[in-house]
């Protein structure tokens, strides 16, 4: 039986999100930091799900476009800060992640085949 290497993707995503949240707290914009972490976290999970496409330029262009489309969400959407805020936010974040994975799949299906080497 072959041992697989441990997957630290969750730890890496958390290591990216924590400084973003702490920086926003430092600026006095805690709710903006929370929103940024939800949006960025969903996007990073979608990137991890389709990580096998990382060598394609169109993949990164699609991620950049989706990220750019999410930037207005940072300033428009305010997630609830109540005790059970995750009950409201989790389904929205999962839907956002699934939509991003779907967009990547659609772009892949269109047929961009350029490789980065």
Helical run tally: 4
* Share of residues in helices: over 70%
Tell me, what's the shape? globular
Number of strands: 0
Q: Which H/E pattern describes the elements? A: HHHH
Q: What is the gyration radius calculated from CA atoms?
A: 16 Å
Low-confidence stretches: none
Q: Please state roughly what percent of the residues sit in beta strands, choosing from under 5%, 5-15%, 15-25%, 25-35%, 35-45% or over 45%.
A: under 5%
Mean pLDDT over the residues: 85
Query: How can the largest sheet be summarized?
Result: none
User: Structural class, from secondary structure content?
Assistant: mainly alpha
Q: Quote the distance from N terminus to C terminus.
A: 33 Å
Q: What is the count of structural domains?
A: 1
Task: Please provide a written account of the structure.
By secondary structure, the chain is mostly helical. The protein has one domain. The protein contains 4 helices and no strands. Helix 2 packs antiparallel against helix 3, helix 2 (30-49) crosses helix 4 (85-110) and helix 3 packs antiparallel against helix 4. The protein is globular, with a radius of gyration of 16 Å.
């Amino acid at each position: 039986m072959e041992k697989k290497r441990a997957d630290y993707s969750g730890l890496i995503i958390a290591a990216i999100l924590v400084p973003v949240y702490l920086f926003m707290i430092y600026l006095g914009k805690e709710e903006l930091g929370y929103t940024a972490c939800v949006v960025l976290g969903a996007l990073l999970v979608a990137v991890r799900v389709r990580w096998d496409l990382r060598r394609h330029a169109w993949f990164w262009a699609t991620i950049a476009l989706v990220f750019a489309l999410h930037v207005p969400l940072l300033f428009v959407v305010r997630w609830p800060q109540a005790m059970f805020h995750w009950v409201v936010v989790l389904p929205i974040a999962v839907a956002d992640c699934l939509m991003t994975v779907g967009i990547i799949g659609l772009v892949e299906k269109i047929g961009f085949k350029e490789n980065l080497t």
